[in-house]
UniProtKB/TrEMBL annotation:
InterPro entries assigned: A/G_cyclase (IPR001054), Adenylyl/Guanylyl_Cyclase_3/4 (IPR050697), Nucleotide_cyclase (IPR029787)
Highest taxon of the lineage: Bacteria
Any GO MF annotation of the entry: adenylate cyclase activity
SMART domains: CYCc
Matches recorded under CDD domains: CHD
Name this protein carries in UniProt: Adenylate/guanylate cyclase domain-containing protein
Organism encoding this protein: Solimonas fluminis
Length: 561
């Protein structure tokens, strides 16, 4: 293939024109449409890349895209390969959104063949095209923000049904705004399809948004539950009817459906009369339900988002009735207002997590953080070890001391026991007065849980003795038992409780009761797990008949080597 210096210079100039036009558009915040303002061959005629299609290839000008395309047209006659470049420039001359070039009829007395620029758009039409391009870009930006907020909500709280519904509403809003780029593209059939899809997304967005509030009511509202649910369901039904009516309107009157009314509102008088009663009733019922939800025992964290929704609703719903150029600004303001409530929601949730961390063992908190509440709530039967300890002489100590001193002792003892249990993988389940129950092997599995339970008991006994001696005649007895238990979380009386049910719990409690101060007793299963460990010598005792057990139970006293 032959390349001449002239063709290289032409390619270089073409590239420079293209790069310069793109840079100019970016600096003027209109690169989103690739608008490049210039003068055609006629020095008095203003044009732009939207409209210079045919004239650009014929006018022997030197400025902007018209000069480049004109040179390409002249070169096409000499080199047939240049026709591809002409087609490229003609393609660039079209609007990126798919609009055809805007042309006007030639003025009186002007030969269109002699002056092809007379068929280009007027300056006002070029300005209108640039304005429309900016509006489309605003739709795209706001749509990306809305969809991004939905993704953030979903990733931040994926296990909450209410948050999943909210994320879906945000994603639908982003898709609806993104679809605006294609509503005016192509022929009438394409525009009707895009308009129908847009109305579907609007109706789905309304339904899912109401579903988010309804799920909050299911989890939160104790009073007026039935009334609030009925209001939300009727509101969703009206929203569904609204969506069906908009689709029917497009099918019956397509030309009117595609035409926006002039002024601030895009709806005509007929559309106001037909759609406003249904949509307004749906919004009114949902608003009443939300107000009732705020007045009853709603979740304080969700209340922040609900209040933000009430404030932002006029701006978000304005996208259904405002003229096209005002919609991105209205929705952007609504999203900013709602974002403030969402931030407040996550602040409250973080504060709750920090507060609950004080009442959950590190093991349970770790399961909740890594696997969610569903893992903790799941019931299963597994073999674990149970450690039960109890203070000796505590009743007399509590009678002789003031309550503040008693509470101070218990706090220090519980803190010490929690630290020791954490080091050996134990979970402190219950604080019952002067007693303590620790699970080793649940909710997180622990390898060699029986050995870990014995190490825990002996270390707790060793470290608690100095504390108890300083307070007077206090001692500590510990019982350890191993067996199959059913573990999991149950919910009742408005709180969540992690429980372990089985004979091993009762046996550990009986062994603790029988242990003297400074003594650690274990059952036969625990002792069998320690046979190969000489550092835990065990002394067999006479079998004991414990309450609740039919046969005498072997008992072993443990000491540290």
């Amino acid at each position: 293939m032959h390349f001449s210096w002239r063709s290289l210079r032409w390619a270089r100039r073409s590239f420079l024109h293209f790069a310069g036009s793109a840079a100019h558009s970016a600096l003027r915040a209109s690169c989103r449409c690739l608008i490049s303002s210039h003068f055609c061959g006629s020095a008095s005629h203003f044009s732009c890349s939207f409209c210079c299609q045919d004239c650009a290839a014929a006018v022997p000008g030197t400025g902007g895209w018209s000069g480049v395309a004109a040179r390409a047209g002249r070169l096409r006659e000499a080199r047939p390969s240049a026709s591809a470049a002409v087609r490229v420039f003609r393609f660039i001359g079209f609007s990126p959104w798919g609009r055809h070039p805007v042309q006007r009829p030639p003025a009186a007395g002007v030969d269109s063949a002699a002056d092809p620029g007379s068929q280009c758009c007027t300056p006002a039409e070029c300005t209108s095209l640039r304005t429309m391009s900016s509006v489309h870009t605003a739709y795209l930006v706001v749509g990306i923000i809305a969809a991004g907020m939905g993704v953030i909500v979903l990733m931040s709280d994926p296990r909450s049904g209410a948050s999943r519904a909210l994320a879906m509403a945000m994603l639908l809003l982003g898709l609806r705004l993104g679809l605006s780029l294609f509503e005016h593209a192509g022929d009438t059939a394409w525009q009707l399809q895009a308009a129908a899809m847009a109305r579907l997304l609007e109706a789905a967005n309304i339904l899912v948004g109401i579903e988010w509030a309804r799920r909050i009511a299911v989890l939160s509202a104790a009073r007026l539950q039935r009334t609030i649910q009925v209001l939300f369901r009727v509101s969703q039904l009206l929203g569904l009817i609204y969506g069906a009516m908009t689709l029917g309107y497009i099918a019956i009157a397509p030309e009117a459906a595609l035409q926006d009314a002039p002024g601030l509102m895009r709806l005509s008088g007929l559309e106001w009369a037909v759609f406003t009663p249904v949509l307004g009733s749906s919004i009114l019922l949902a608003g009443i339900a939300i107000v009732l939800l705020l007045l009853v025992s709603a979740d304080p964290a969700e209340c922040g988002r609900l209040r933000a929704l009430v404030i932002s609703a006029p701006f978000l719903l304005g996208g259904l009735v405002l003229a096209e150029r005002y919609v991105p600004v209205s929705i952007a303001v609504g999203l900013l207002v709602f974002l403030g409530g969402s931030v407040r929601y996550y602040i409250v949730q973080a504060q709750r997590g920090e507060f609950m961390r004080q009442f959950l063992s590190p093991q349970v908190a770790r399961v909740v953080n890594l696997q969610g509440m569903s893992q903790v709530m799941r019931r299963e039967r597994r073999q674990i070890s149970v450690v039960v300890c109890d203070l000796r002489g505590f009743t007399r100590f509590a009678a002789e001391r003031v309550s503040d001193e008693v509470m101070d002792l218990l706090q220090r003892f519980y803190q010490l026991a929690g630290e020791v249990a954490s080091r050996h993988g134990g979970t402190v389940k219950d604080h019952a007065g002067d007693g303590l129950l620790v699970l080793v092997g649940a909710p997180l599995p622990v390898a060699d849980h029986a050995q870990a339970a014995v190490r825990l008991a002996l270390e707790l006994m060793r470290e608690a003795q100095p504390l108890l001696r300083r307070e007077g005649e206090l001692g500590l007895g510990i019982g350890v038992a191993t067996g199959h238990l059913t573990v999991g979380a149950i919910q009742g009386a408005g709180r969540l409780e992690y429980v372990a049910v089985g004979n091993a719990v009762n046996l550990a409690a009986r062994l603790c009761q029988r242990a003297e101060a400074g003594e650690v007793l274990c059952d036969r299963r625990t002792h069998e797990a320690l046979r190969e460990l000489p550092e835990f010598p065990a002394q067999a005792r006479e079998p004991e008949q414990f309450k609740g057990f039919d046969d005498p139970t072997p008992v072993y006293a443990l000491t540290a080597a």
